[in-house]
Amino acid sequence: MPRPFRVIVAAAASVLALALTGCAGANPFASNAEETRYPGYAEAAADEATPDWIPEDAVNVWVRSDDGDVILRFESGSPIGDETCTDGPLEGEPDIESSWFPFERPADGKTCGEWRIFGQNNVYYAWTTAS
User: Fold this and answer.
1) 120 is a domain residue
2) If we measure between CA atoms, which residue out of 99, 83, 94 comes closest to residue 35?
3) Which domain holds residue 38?
4) 57 in any annotated domain
5) What φ, ψ does residue 81 adopt, rounded to 5°?
6) Is residue 62 part of a domain?
């Protein structure tokens, strides 16, 4: 085998080995996110990330949280919110994502404290951010 070819192969192998061993220790995309699906409100209410304004008839409750940022999804035939909620523009964006949370969101919905809520056909989505 010609000498220049061996040098190139050795250099490429060294770069590959360095790249593969360094990835585990310093991954900028690492996350502490926790995602849980609850069959109903009773189970979801035990999760501290679940807000108080979710109706008691809520089912299929999904909660994803990461360092104070939370997104959720649930189904309910009851009115959403309480006396602290107002209708209006949904300001801001969620800081976390999930496959079940819509990437595109309507301009208007409800605001309940720090939560932003929108939905259609008895399926609701909400988010709050730590910042």
Assistant:
1) yes
2) 99
3) 34-128
4) yes
5) 100, 180
6) yes
pLDDT in tens, 97-115: 999 999 999 999 999 999 9
Query: What number is the average pLDDT over the span 51-65?
Result: 94
Domain count of the chain? 1
If you write DSSP's letter for every residue of 68-122 in order, what string do you get? TEEEEEEE-SSPP--TTEEEEE--S--S---TTS-SS--SEEEEETTEEEEEETT
Cα distance between residue 10 and residue 15, in whole Å: 9
Order across the sheet with 123-128: list the strands.
Answer: 34-40, 59-66, 69-75, 123-128, 115-120, 108-112, 85-89
* Distance (Å, whole) CA 131 – CA 128: 9
Q: How far apart are CA 52 and CA 46, in angstroms?
A: 11
In a domain, 14, yes or no: no
Residue 131 clears pLDDT 50, i.e. is over it: yes
Q: Is 121 left (phi over 0), alpha (psi -120 to 50) or beta?
A: left
The predicted-structure confidence for 59-106, as pLDDT tens digits, reads as follows: 999 999 998 899 999 999 998 877 779 999 999 999 999 999 999 999
